[in-house]
Amino acid sequence: MRPYVFLPDHHKGFTMMETLISLFIFLLIVSLSAPLLRLLDSASYNQELAANQLFQYIQMEVTQSQRVTTTPTSILLTDVNDRMISIEKYGNIIRRQVNSTGHEPLLKGVEEVLVDDHINGFIMKVRMKENERYSKFIFVPPHKRTRTGIPFSFNPIPFVHHGNIAYH
């Protein structure tokens, strides 16, 4: 009767030190991968990218337009061909229409849109369904600005805006 099991030299098991080192390496990899997985949250990244593209598109439309009129919830532009372009919230999207026809979605998943007038342009604020908020100052030259059809008087006090896009 043998009280112990005899293992030949080439069948040695893991030592305690090897097991602890393996466990340490495993825990290190797991702890470092958790923040990296949070960075891969594509939904918020895609929303941020889509909002930034919307703001760039609106700035381009404003630059190419003849007249710009804002209301608290929409932007009305008159282009070089005297077409009326509206950018407004419709349901849960921001859409673009030309002469009150068509339906070009510019941004989806929108909860609220606000347009605040300022001296040298306006700030467009967008709140998404996931409660992410984006805002951007859009520059409008004084000769293009109207408010409900009445041209703005030029005010030489500059609006100071730091940064391109604000996140809340």
From TrEMBL:
Biological process, per Gene Ontology: establishment of competence for transformation
Ranges that cross the membrane: 20-40
GO CC annotation, single: cell surface
UniProt subcellular location: Cell surface
Pfam families: ComGF (PF15980)
This protein's UniProt keywords: Competence, Membrane, Transmembrane, Transmembrane helix
UniProt KW Membrane keyword: yes
Keyword Nucleotide-binding on entry: no
Source species, domain of life: Bacteria
Residues forming coiled coils: none
Protein name in the entry: Prepilin-type N-terminal cleavage/methylation domain-containing protein
Source organism of this protein record: Halobacillus locisalis
Upper taxonomic lineage: Bacteria, Bacillati, Bacillota, Bacilli, Bacillales
